[in-house]
Design a protein that fits this description.
Distance between the termini: 17 Å
Largest sheet: 4 strands, mixed
CATH superfamily: Glutaredoxin
CATH architecture: 3-Layer(aba) Sandwich
Order of helices and strands: HHHHEHEHEEHHH
Structural class: alpha+beta
Radius of gyration: 16 Å
Number of domains: 1
Helix content: 55-70%
Number of strands: 4
Length: 199
């Protein structure tokens, strides 16, 4: 992995607040983040902005997560590749922000996929540019691990559905969002705690 690519990406990265502000400013202009501008993407972005607003207000970190991040011995950065129109990112990035806010040892930086193709190409999922992708970086900008685009339970749901139906459809995507709402970020927190403990 090219250390310079990571370093440059971190410099360009948005804070969570700036990421949210960018999405809201674009929505006022009738736009979404990313290269592709369609009515669908705009609709997804509006919905996801509301999802993130709700999660920012209601999301709670589990006791296990709080203990794990309190016990961290090293500093890390979560370098996240996302876009405002991405439904999975809308469910996951607010959790990362809560974790970073709760720990002096974790920083959060967000970059947009379509403006960071070289970085995205280093972190493909089964050959696809699936997001969000969370790259865990140490204090020397070395990549320790990566995670995404979905928590482990959701990943299994996707795999099982694809095996039976060949592809994801609107019904599945709706059911996935229902699962996210019921899970309340627990599976994502559990996955990330395991990664941090292994680092």
């Amino acid at each position: 992995m090219n250390n310079t690519l990571i370093s440059n990406s971190l410099i360009k990265g948005f804070s969570y607040q700036d990421y949210r502000s960018l999405i809201k400013e674009l929505l006022i202009q009738g736009k979404s983040t990313g290269v592709t501008q369609t009515d669908d993407f705009l609709g997804y972005s509006k919905l996801n902005d509301k999802r993130m607003d709700r999660l920012d207000k209601t999301l709670k970190l589990s006791n296990e997560t709080q203990i794990a991040i309190h016990n961290l011995k090293k500093n890390y950065t979560f370098l996240v590749i996302a876009e405002g129109w991405c439904g999975d990112a809308a469910q996951i990035v607010p959790i990362l922000n809560k974790i970073a806010e709760a720990s002096s040892k974790i920083d959060l930086k967000i970059v947009l996929r379509d403006k960071n193709e070289k970085l995205m190409d280093q972190f493909l999922t089964n050959g696809s540019k699936s997001i969000p992708k969370i790259i865990i970086v140490d204090s020397n900008n070395n990549v320790i691990n990566s995670w995404g685009p979905r928590p482990s339970v959701a990943t299994k749901m996707v795999q099982d559905y694809k095996e039976i139906n060949g592809a994801l459809d609107a019904d599945f995507k709706k059911n996935l969002q229902i699962w996210y709402n019921k899970d309340k970020g627990k599976n994502t927190q559990d996955d990330l705690v395991k990664l941090l403990k292994a680092s």
